[in-house]
Design a protein that fits this description.
Elements lengths: L1 H21 L3 E8 L2 E2 L4 E9 L7 E6 L2 E8 L14 E7 L7 E10 L7 E4 L2 E4 L1 E8 L1
Parallel strand pairs: 2-10
Antiparallel strand pairs: 1-3, 3-6, 4-5, 4-7, 7-10, 8-9
C-alpha cells in the first residue's frame, strides 16, 4: 500500500507541475514599429503576452541606457490598443528631437495584480517574465 501511495503522489506532482509550466505566462512577440526610429518620429511598442490564467496585470518598459522614465504599456482598448484584455499591450511613444543616434535596449517586464514581477519557471529555475527589445535611432 505504501508503494502505491508514493506512485500516486509522484504522478500527481508530475502532472500538476507540467500543467503549471505549460500554462504559465509568456511573451509571444515584442516589437517596436517601425523598427528604426529617428529623432522627432513616433513609434508603437507592442508586446504580445500569452497568459492563460490572467496573471499579468501590467507591462512596463524601461530604456536600459536611460532608466529614468517607465513606459507603461496598455491593454485597455484605448488607441493605439485595438481591443481590451486581448493580451496585446501597446504604447505610442514620441522619440525626443534631441535623441542621439545609436543602438539602445528596451527592457520589458510583466507584473501581477500586487505589482510584483511575474515569475516563470524554466529548466527548474525561476526567472522574471522579462524581454529585451533593440531600439535603433538613426
Amino acid at each position: 500500500m505504501m508503494f502505491l501511495e508514493i506512485v500516486i503522489i509522484s504522478l500527481f506532482l508530475v502532472l500538476t507541475s507540467c500543467r503549471t509550466i505549460a500554462g504559465q505566462p509568456r511573451i509571444k512577440n515584442a516589437e517596436i514599429i517601425p523598427p528604426e526610429l529617428s529623432p522627432g518620429s513616433s513609434a508603437v511598442i507592442q508586446v504580445v503576452v500569452k497568459d492563460k490564467h490572467h496573471v499579468v496585470r501590467k507591462v512596463e518598459g524601461v530604456v536600459k541606457e536611460d532608466p529614468r522614465i517607465k513606459l507603461k504599456l496598455r491593454d485597455d482598448g484605448m488607441e493605439p490598443d485595438k481591443k481590451a484584455n486581448d493580451g496585446i499591450w501597446v504604447l505610442k511613444v514620441d522619440v525626443p528631437t534631441e535623441a542621439v543616434p545609436g543602438k539602445f535596449t528596451l527592457e520589458v517586464d510583466a507584473y501581477n495584480k500586487d505589482g510584483m514581477s511575474v515569475k516563470i519557471r524554466d529548466k527548474g529555475e525561476v526567472f522574471p517574465l522579462h524581454l529585451e527589445i533593440p531600439i535603433i535611432i538613426k
